[in-house]
Design goal:
three-stranded antiparallel sheet; about 240 residues; SIR2/SIRT2 'Small Domain'; alpha/beta
């Protein structure tokens, strides 16, 4: 059995930790992942179109009502709360050890837990903007809109600030993520299959010798990691951070 306390010492002795997480870090908050049996990609869309197509830029503009119906039903989780794994990262950040959280998630749970330097590679459901006047709209405004498709005061259509299929990542944000990882002493990766590019390849920029990979299933980068932990992120991360036995 892996000695989590000993591994935690390696992490807690560092003052330059970077965390990189995916959908698996939110499942224990009640948010489905993408590829599991109960995941988003197996959800019933109701329109005989796969979820990947619904969550594309072309579909958003061609079938906006169908997009928003699926989006509001399956990507918005208003009752989800941070779990002990999120809180452990806040603990490390407040100690000055964790320098950045890089996430593929759009749920905002890291910020809800109290983390401050969060790089959201795929955007956030909490940010929405008018396609005409660029005015910001909160998630509450989007959910309270009279029709399925939220409209701005100017009459323009509101789009979630999330990266859809056929859209590119923010290159400045990606460059920041690369720099954090390249300079990190410890890299902790959790809850991601490491198959979605270009985000997955970010781990290759890590130059150190303390790469922790926490995931319940194997990934293409298991052999690249120094420590592979096949366990629950919400259970393991507090132990590694020294806030739980």
């Amino acid at each position: 059995m892996m000695d989590y306390q000993a591994l935690g010492e390696l992490i807690r002795n560092s003052d330059n930790i970077v965390f990189f997480g995916g959908a698996g870090t939110s499942t224990e908050s009640g948010i489905p992942d993408f590829r599991s049996a109960d995941g988003l990609y197996n959800a019933d869309t109701g329109v005989n179109v796969p979820p990947e197509e619904i969550l594309s830029r072309d579909f958003f503009f061609a079938h906006t009502e169908d997009f928003y119906k699926f989006y509001k039903e399956h990507l918005i989780h208003p009752h989800a709360k941070p779990h002990p794994g999120h809180e452990a990262l806040v603990h490390l950040e407040r100690q000055g050890k964790l320098k950045a959280i890089i996430t593929q998630n759009i749920d905002g749970l890291h910020q809800m837990a109290g983390s401050t330097n969060v790089l959201e590679l795929h955007g956030s459901v909490h940010r929405n903007y008018c396609l005409d006047c660029r005015r910001f709209h909160s998630l509450d405004e989007v959910m309270a809109s009279e029709g399925l498709v939220p409209r701005c005061e100017c009459g323009g259509m509101v789009k979630p600030d999330v990266v859809l299929y056929q859209e590119g990542l923010d290159m400045q944000l990606l460059d920041r993520a690369v720099n954090y990882i390249r300079e990190a002493d410890v890299l902790i990766v959790a809850g991601t299959s490491l198959t979605v590019q270009p985000a997955a390849s970010l781990v290759r920029y890590y130059l150190g010798g303390r790469f922790f990979l926490i995931n319940k299933s194997s990934t293409p980068y298991d052999s690249f990691a120094d420590y592979v932990i096949t366990d629950s992120f919400a259970k393991v991360m507090p132990i590694l951070a020294g806030v739980s036995d």
